[in-house]
Amino acid sequence: MLDRLIHEQLDRLHQLMADAPFAVLTGAGISTPSGIPDYRDNQGVRRGRQPMMYQEFLSAPESRRRYWARAMLGWPRVRLAQPNVAHDTLARLQGTRQISGLITQNVDTLHDQAGSHDVIELHGSLHRVLCLDCGRRSERDSIQRLMETQNPYLAGVDAVQAPDGDTLLDPAFEARFQVPNCPHCAGERMKPDVVFFGENVAQATAAKAMVTVERAAGLLVLGSSLMAYSAFRLCQAVVDQGKPLIAINLGKTRADEMLDLKIEGACEQFLPLLAQRLNH
Ligand SMILES: [Zn+2]
After folding, report:
1. What's this model's pTM, rounded to 2 decimal places?
2. 248: enclosing H helix or E strand
3. 3-class SS at 124?
4. 84 alpha carbon – ligand 1 mean position (Å)
5. Catalytic annotation, residues
């Protein structure tokens, strides 16, 4: 038996979304049940250590060495992550055109893996690597094999998983690390094809997300605290157009004051229930 509050919230959610398709914006909260760590707690405050800033990554070879050494050990967990029922439900809703577009802040490609199409990845994807020298991209898996071949001493090293999911590695191991070179131009500055902290979202991607939101009947935010401005501005646009803004998120969001409906709940619990109602 669902309790009464959940019933009331679902009624309201259904009422807002029943007429025309919404765009959906997802954040880390939708992927935590798949084992992908969240950077922020339920007050929207960053937890764990500070992630590497873009300037730091760019400016020093030691920073890139530290980044890639840790990334090599952390990759298997990201690669093996599976979509959960929330990703699956969104893929179905997109298939039946009950949502009009899907924008994500996540870099795990779990929406694609669940069968969604034309996903707008605001922050890029960890599954690709970009060369800053020649601008070409490589598959992360092929770069992973390159790193494993060049750093056999790290095979079997038991990296300590920090509580926030980051990898802690002995500095002595980092110092020996051989950074991968670009398979196309042999350049030394390869970065995961993701937007770092301190880096801007690509203009074309930001524009595409804005158009998707402007054409939708409203915006449903799932599992995001909306602390990143690139996501928050989409909410502002929806409100400016006088369209409904809804969030399902465990904890505070930056748009709490602007929301027409806020459900403090888990996406993997609410989305299947919402889908049921929409299909009745
Ligand atoms: Zn290159």
Report:
1. 0.91
2. strand 245-248
3. strand
4. 35
5. 123
